[in-house]
Amino acid sequence: MVSLRTPLPADLRWLRVEDASAVAACRNVAATMASRLRFPSARADQLAVAVTEAASNLHKHAEQGSLLLCVSRDAEPPGIALVTIDAGPGLPDVGAAWRDGHSTAGTLGIGLGAIGRLADSCDVYSVPGRGTALVARFWPVPSQPAIRFAGLIRPITGEIECGDAFGAVQTGETVTALLCDGLGHGPLAAAAASEAVATVLEAPEAEPAALLERAHRRLGGTRGGAVGIVQVAGRAARFAGLGNITASILSAGRRKGMLSVPGIAGHQARTIRQFEYEVPTGAAIVLHSDGLSSRWDTATVPGLDARDPLLISAVLLAVAGTHRDDASVLVLKP
Predict the structure, then answer these.
(1) Cα gap 209→169, rounded to integer Å
(2) Are 239 and 227 in contact (CB under 8 A)?
(3) Same domain, 73 and 93
(4) Is there a contact between 179 and 330 (Cβ–Cβ < 8 Å)?
(5) pLDDT digits (tens, 9 = 90+) for 228-248
(6) CATH number for the domain that contains residue 37
(7) Verdict on whether the full-model pTM lies above 0.90
(8) Is 36 helix (H, G, I), strand (E, B) or coil?
């Protein structure tokens, strides 16, 4: 069984990179996280170099750059995921940007090439005029686990805890996943969202409608929240949603929405319904909270459905996310 849960606040750090001093701050956070996870010293040094290069790239080339360091528990022992997003000019030639010596700002131009060599896996997505997202994973010992689902959360500006949470579990060939947007912000919203995730993942074998009914009952003593639950087996996806969780299937440049019904899990649910959809080969299934605008257009992110699920999450957070609300996105690549 493979499972995924929202990182704890201590396992996740978003850092804004708007001046040169932020580069050292990013490097220090990486060193602290690597030490806590008992990375070998040589591997910790490689992570520090990659984080320094990534933060320097944001400072020199990007606008509204942010860097995330997050404990990744997709394998044992756990590793560290590095994510950067920005609203900069983008890369006109991503392939050229990987080569040492290539630069768009008169610098040495070794950043992306160094990160790619040091990381266990690394991927970049960029659209000229819309920014760039980078995802790199570092394990204490070399590893290449198959990543079928991944997600990101980002608390509203000024908060440490995010009121959104997600979870996913794979049993055999079936993946059950959910995303919850706890009502409001802060610790009480986070507690409601965490309760929803725990309720579903403790016994995920039931159909999404039944799982949503269970979550609705359990959230009665909390603030409640919007909940979306999807279950994928083969080419079929079943979905049940209550409230404003946006769920979509991305395939071949098209986006098909999955239906949710109005309500608040734990407080208001007149009707809970389940819908079934076909999942094309190679498709990505995306769930996100209203901390991302639902109006993003697949035409502005061509080929995104074929990428790493964590990279898809990062790109959508970059192009559709807002700092005026908790934000979360979960991506499945069944």
Answers:
(1) 17
(2) no
(3) yes
(4) yes
(5) 999 999 999 999 999 999 999
(6) 3.30.565.10
(7) yes
(8) helix
